[in-house]
Automatic annotation (TrEMBL):
Annotated protein name in UniProt: Periplasmic heavy metal sensor
Region (Disordered): 154-177
Species this protein is from: Geofilum rubicundum JCM 15548
Statement: the UniProt record of this protein carries the keyword Transmembrane: yes
Keywords per UniProt: Membrane, Transmembrane, Transmembrane helix
Amino acid sequence: MNRNKVAIWLGVLVLAFVVGWLAYKTLPENKDVAAPSEVYGVDTASWRGFQRLAEHLDLQDDQRVLFHERERAYRDSLYYYRLLLSDLEAQIVQALSQTDPDIEQLSKYAHESGRLQERIKRLTIHHFLDLRELCTPEQQEKLTVMFSQMHQGFGQHQRGQGKGRGMQHGRRHKVPN
């Protein structure tokens, strides 16, 4: 009798799974409410940042659409450059792990890293100027203040930014050109 109950329960579970799977595959999706990341194509943190910016600048609907298009293009390009930098950093680590690292190759990596960082800075500059073009004069002032405040916040607690004690006795290193 126990085997019959177990077989019935297994049959019910399998049947429930099959019915649930069929319902999932055949019923239309509820697309009335979409997450911000689905609507805007950015992660949630970026969405919140975009919302704060739009609210602070009091953007009109048409400005929000244009801002979002530019922001998305900027983030896509920035993501691409960061991937390249990450790959380059991995190559540097790999080269440094060799018994006899090739200084010339490491120098090329350093040069390429600088080139990519310059592109990121130029991309950011053009992005700011693009956004500023979409603003009214009052919004431009607010945007400039926001970027200035963001810049002041950079460098305070970034990676590698300790308490300034890295060059004490025994820690001074000459950096080759």
